[in-house]
UniProtKB/TrEMBL annotation:
It comes from Antrihabitans stalactiti. Residues 167-333 form the Cytochrome c domain. This is ATP-binding protein. Keywords: ATP-binding, Heme, Iron, Metal-binding, Nucleotide-binding. Residues 1-22 are annotated as: Disordered. The lineage of its organism: Bacteria, Bacillati, Actinomycetota, Actinomycetes, Mycobacteriales.
Amino acid sequence: MDPVRNPYAPGAGQRPPELAGRDRQLDAFDVVLERISRSRPERSVVLTGLRGVGKTVLLNQLRSAAVSRGWGTGKIEARPDQSLRRPLSSALHMAVRAIATAHRNPEQVDDFLGILKAFALRATADKGMRERWQPGIDVPAITGRADSGDIEIDLVELLLEAAQLARDIGVGIAIFIDEMQDIGADDISAICGACHELSQDAAPLIVVGAGLPHLPAVLSASKSYSERLFSYHRIDRLDRDAADLALIVPAEREDVKFTDEALDALYAAADGYPYFVQAYGKATWDLAADSPITAEDVLLAAPTAEEELAVGFFGSRYERATPAEREYMRAMADLSGDDGPVATAKIAAELGRKPASLSPARDGLIKKGLIYSAERGTIGFTVPHFGRYLRAQTE
């Protein structure tokens, strides 16, 4: 069939043509936005799940929902070993600029921007560097608020000031943070503390984060009360109906249909993971001669989809690992059956090593986002079917 008309989109963070199976999270977020618009207290939101389940796509959709209500929004992608000040300053600057024109008092807006600039300039302790780097805010910095150098104090003060600005206008502000598990310990503690203050004040400002399955544990390790600060949503694979919908609806727009057997084969291949649904759908479309798409088309296209996943989705991650880390992951794959968590003690036994000697490899893989601590004493792959991929590499 015509590849130009192919509707499927297997891309990192790329919105699929049909966002299926996420109505519950979208509806819950609409309730959050509506409650805040009525000055009712609400918790910030956290999305968790493996890679490839569509967390970034959903995060972007939630942001669109906030924008549609006139909210100011900004988004950042956290990175390991990166301070929160600069990216958060840019995101908050973007959010405030979106709502500033509706404020009746431009001087109050400028005052906030001055506070934001002072907060941003604390991103480095070196005075000379501060003088050379500017955050792109065209007002003088205002000292004495959100610039103490203690991120926990400064972030509370800054976000409360931003919330007051939004309250004066009658809208809200939402800061979206992707890869939230990569935020440093001091900064994650500051976010939790700020969200605590914001919720107590019923402030019209929320944080919406997305991260790997161990993100709740990261938050809990920072603040014991974090489980009450956020509304947690686990994003998982699609059920059969939703996976079928993700394939059928875009195809029908192009007057193309699937046989029931083709949908059976596609679900078996993709296992309900949204990224895989798009990858197998795209490969099958390109190979199929005409409509309806059949199970035979799926069977013939599967090697193409698997090859693309092996290079782009699995292989690119595997290549980042050191030889010791690859050995650790191969042992995980042999023990996990497919992708399920496996006890670290079993990995050590499999490799004939003491658990302590494997800590550098394990910690390196966690920092690279390839594995996560599922629960105490166990570890799991962050990428679905990664164990299957590794076992295939050694066969």
